[in-house]
Amino acid sequence: QVQLVESGGGLVQAGGSLRLSCAASGSIFSINDMGWYRQAPGKQRELVAVITSGGSTNYADSVKGRFTISRDNAKNTVYLQMNSLKPEDTAVYYCNADVIRRSRSRGLYWGQGTQVTVSS
Fold first, then answer.
1. Residues 6+ apart with CB under 8 A from 107
2. pLDDT class of 25 with cuts at 50, 70, 90
3. CB atoms < 10 A from the CB of 45, how many?
4. Which of 6, 21, 68, 92 pairs as cysteine with 113 (C-beta 3.0–4.6 A)?
5. What is the spatial distance between Cα 43 and Cα 10, in angstroms, rounded to a whole number?
6. Residues 35, 40, 41, 46: is their CA dihedral positive or negative?
């Protein structure tokens, strides 16, 4: 079994910063892509950023230049540094990971979500 545990959410004023972390643990052989998604009330879950095992990144247009995704492969952890936060960034943020398990089977796993609230 594989678990993803997120941390770092909270309440921040507009213009402020937060750093989210997501650590994967369990029966892991390797991890391919890791990503961050978010879901605001009444809206569909959307991609925020994704990073490959080699470090290539992709961002939603709405966060380019403000958010930075990174990962520590030795720790099976992905980070999301969020700067210049706006009220419209308010959402529950979820991480996910494309995991190759020790059995060599593959699965997509999600964290439990962490709330980010940006006040104006």
1. 2, 99, 101
2. very high
3. 14
4. 92
5. 20
6. negative
